[in-house]
Amino acid sequence: MAAFRATFQSRAGQWSRAAWALALLFASMPVASWLFLGGWGFAGAGELSGICFLIGLYLYIRSRRASRLPDAAIMLERAIGLAATGQAEDAIALLTKTIHLNPRFWQAFQHRGSLRLRGDSIQQAVEDFTAAIRLAPEEAHLYTLRGHALGLLGDDRAAQRDYETATALGRGNNLRANS
What we know:
Helix content: over 70%
CATH topology of the largest domain: Serine Threonine Protein Phosphatase 5, Tetratricopeptide repeat
CATH architecture of the largest domain: Alpha Horseshoe
Radius of gyration: 27 Å
Largest sheet: none
Structural class: mainly alpha
CATH superfamily of the largest domain: Tetratricopeptide repeat domain
Number of domains: 2
């Protein structure tokens, strides 16, 4: 998502400059006609110039507005940095904000679950790992993390199922990598 946003911002800026160049070109056509041909030509060039200018303005505003949206990957990096410096509660708060802004970013659920697991909020960690698994069911390590948390809660049967699923997914990933 972050890459798409950065690409859109860059492309919108490029297209806005291209639209302004076209506006300038269309605006200069009647003047060039008068200078070189001796008469005002190119009827409608002013209207085309105005339309291109407005399109360029719209794209410029869109490119600037897109840059103000927070990037989930950058927020995740900041949260990991906070956790590394011992500020786990601040990291969890930042990850919660990241999840609210981008509820399909499974990595935020994974890291928040890991932090909650370290902080003795084991049931909440299980919920975070479950949400991450819902979004990325092919990620074997998520099942391992949830299995560990379920084991800490005393649900050994569910933990064993998650470990078996992680092992099966791990084997499947190895087979795909070797193909």
